[in-house]
Automatic annotation (TrEMBL):
Name of this chain's protein: Mitochondrial uncoupling protein 5
Alphabetical UniProt keywords: Membrane, Mitochondrion, Repeat, Stress response, Transmembrane, Transmembrane helix, Transport
Annotated membrane topology: Multi-pass membrane protein
Alphabetized InterPro entries for the sequence: MCP (IPR002067), MCP_dom_sf (IPR023395), MCP_transmembrane (IPR018108), Mito_Metabolite_Transporter (IPR050391)
MF GO annotations: dicarboxylic acid transmembrane transporter activity
GO cellular component: mitochondrial inner membrane
Matching PANTHER family: MITOCHONDRIAL DICARBOXYLATE CARRIER-RELATED
Family membership: Belongs to the mitochondrial carrier (TC 2.A.29) family.
Length: 319
C-alpha cells in the first residue's frame, strides 16, 4: 500500500507539472524582474541613493534606472517573440525529474502518514495532524529533489540573460553535470534550506487544505464526492498554498539563479541576505513578485494534481 501511494502521487504530479510548466516559467521570469546584476550590489540601488546636493547624486555613483516591470501576459508574449513557442517549455525535462523526485516522495509520505494518523472511528484526520504530515513529507521530498529544482530554475531563467551570458544547458542531466563540474557537487543543494522551507509550507497548506476543504464540502452536503468537489477543494488549496509560499519562492528563485564567478563574492551570502537586499532595493511587496502567475499556476496545478490523483486512485483501487 505504501508503494501504491508513491506511484499514484508521482503520476498525478508529473501530469500536473508538465501541463502547467509555461505558467511556472513566467512566474520565475517575473520573480527575477528588477534583480540587480551581481556587480551592482556593491553600490546603492537607485531607490536607496541619497541626494547630497540639490537634485544631484554623488558623482562616482552611476547606476541605470531599474527596468520597467511587466505583467505575466507581456512576459509570456516576450518569450514567444524572442525565442519561439517552444521556449515556453524551457526546462521541462527538469520539471519531470523534479516531480519524479520531490512530488512523488512528498505525496507518498503524506499518504502513509495519513493512513497511520487517521482516526479509525470517524475516518478523518484532525487538521493539525494533516499540517504536521504535510510539513514532514514536504521537507523530506524537497531535500531529495533539490538538484532538479536548481536545474529547473536555471533552465527557466536562462532565456532572460544576454546570449553571451547564457548557460545553454541542453537538458536537466547536462545542467546537473555542468553545475557539479564547475561549481562543485554542493551547488546542487544551493538554496536547499529555502527549498525545504517552501516545500514544507506548500505541502502542508496544499495537501492539508485540500483534504480539509473536501471533508467540509462532503460533511455539509454542499456537493457529492465527484469532479465538482475535487475541483473546488483543489483550487481553494492552490490559493492557500500560493499565499503561504510566494515570499519564500521569490528568495529561493534568486538564490538558486545567482551566478557565482571565480574570485568574486556571490551576490547573496544566504537566504536572509537575499531577502534583506531584495526588500531594501525593491520594497517589501517585492516578496510577492510573480504572485499572479503563481496563483495562475498553483490553481491549475493543484486542480490537475488532485483531479488526476482521484482518477488514478479509481483506476488502481483494485490493485
Amino acid at each position: 500500500m505504501g508503494f501504491k501511494g508513491f506511484f499514484e502521487g508521482g503520476i498525478a504530479s508529473i501530469v500536473a507539472g508538465c501541463s502547467t510548466h509555461p505558467l511556472d516559467l513566467i512566474k520565475v521570469r517575473m520573480q527575477l524582474q528588477g534583480e540587480a546584476p551581481a556587480s551592482s550590489f556593491q553600490a546603492l540601488r537607485p531607490a536607496l541613493t541619497f541626494h547630497t546636493t540639490a537634485g544631484h547624486v554623488h558623482p562616482h555613483i552611476s547606476l541605470p534606472p531599474p527596468p520597467p516591470r511587466v505583467g505575466p501576459v507581456a512576459v509570456g508574449l516576450r518569450i514567444i517573440q524572442q525565442d519561439g513557442v517552444a521556449a515556453m517549455f524551457s526546462g521541462v525535462s527538469a520539471t519531470v525529474l523534479r516531480q519524479t523526485l520531490y512530488s512523488t516522495t512528498r505525496m507518498g509520505l503524506y499518504d502513509i502518514l495519513k493512513q497511520k494518523w487517521t482516526d479509525p472511528n470517524s475516518n478523518n484526520m484532525p487538521l493539525m495532524r494533516k499540517i504536521a504530515a504535510g510539513l514532514i513529507a514536504g521537507g523530506i521530498g524537497a531535500a531529495v529533489g533539490n538538484p532538479a529544482d536548481v536545474a529547473m530554475v536555471r533552465m527557466q531563467a536562462d532565456g532572460r540573460l544576454p546570449p553571451a551570458q547564457r548557460r545553454n544547458y541542453k537538458s536537466v542531466v547536462d545542467a546537473i553535470s555542468q553545475m557539479a563540474k564547475s561549481e562543485g557537487v554542493a551547488s546542487l543543494w544551493r538554496g536547499s534550506s529555502l527549498t525545504v522551507n517552501r516545500a514544507m509550507l506548500v505541502t502542508a497548506s496544499q495537501l492539508a487544505s485540500y483534504d480539509q476543504f473536501k471533508e467540509i464540502i462532503l460533511e455539509k452536503h454542499l456537493m457529492k464526492d465527484g469532479l465538482g468537489t475535487h475541483v473546488t477543494a483543489s483550487f481553494a488549496a492552490g490559493f492557500v498554498a500560493a499565499v503561504a509560499s510566494n515570499p519564500v519562492d521569490v528568495i529561493k528563485t534568486r538564490v538558486m539563479n545567482m551566478k557565482v564567478e571565480a574570485g568574486m563574492a556571490p551576490p547573496y551570502s544566504g537566504a536572509m541576505d537575499c531577502a534583506m537586499k531584495t526588500i531594501r532595493a525593491e520594497g517589501p511587496m517585492s516578496l510577492y513578485k510573480g504572485f499572479i502567475p503563481t496563483i495562475s499556476r498553483q490553481g491549475p496545478f493543484t486542480v490537475v494534481l488532485f483531479v488526476t490523483l482521484e482518477q488514478v486512485r479509481k483506476l488502481l483501487k483494485d490493485f
